[in-house]
Fold Urease-associated protein.
Amino acid sequence: MGPQSLMRKLLRFLALLVVAVALAAALGTLVPRPLWRAAAAAPAGTRHILVLNNPIHTDIAIPVDDDVRQRFRFLADAGIPADAPEVRYIVFGWGGRAFYLETPTWSELKAMPVLKALTRDASVMHVDIAGAITEPHPDVAGFDVGEERFAALLDFIATSFQQGPNGPVVIENAAYSRFDRFYEANGHFNALVGCNTWTAAALRTAGLRTGWWNPLPVSLGFSMRLYN
């Protein structure tokens, strides 16, 4: 088999791979998860959560009150001023360790974090705080969830943190600013199970419907608008 024949086979394989990924992404967006909306009584109270997105990543912004601050009191121990009166949201995101820690800006993008993100990497939780967040906004989607589902969402987020002898394990000298921190997380990151699939799983815990597989913010956002 000559070099030209091998090249044609490789190109055909790559073309089929692109088609397969595109088809999977389309089906993952259009097929809801869960398939059927669960019947539920109207909640006595609701909490307004936000999904924040950029072109490749999504975070969940949780409205704070005294109970939420108490639940995540370990954040203050790491220097995050979550108990400051001007803080309105605690923002949580899950992602690949190398990409998160080594790519604070696009100008600092390197080959190795990208390779790890496409294959397999350890995971981290990124936690930030925010004041009032403007709605409506192209990069912000808000959803009302009942108190019971809100509590389940907090449980999901809390169990995403890896636990050490003294609670969640903060990563020393890893932050983008004075107001955020990184923590060791449970699970491994790869191209199929990434930051946006974590966000989708968290939102399903909160009683919302997503697409079956949402690897990108655009597909997650479309499915959320379609089924909620």
User: Anything to note?
Assistant: The longest strand covers residues 121-130. The radius of gyration is 19 Å. Residues 200 and 210 are 6 Å apart (CA to CA). The helical segments are 3-30, 66-71, 74-77, 97-102, 111-118, 147-159, 195-205, 217-227.
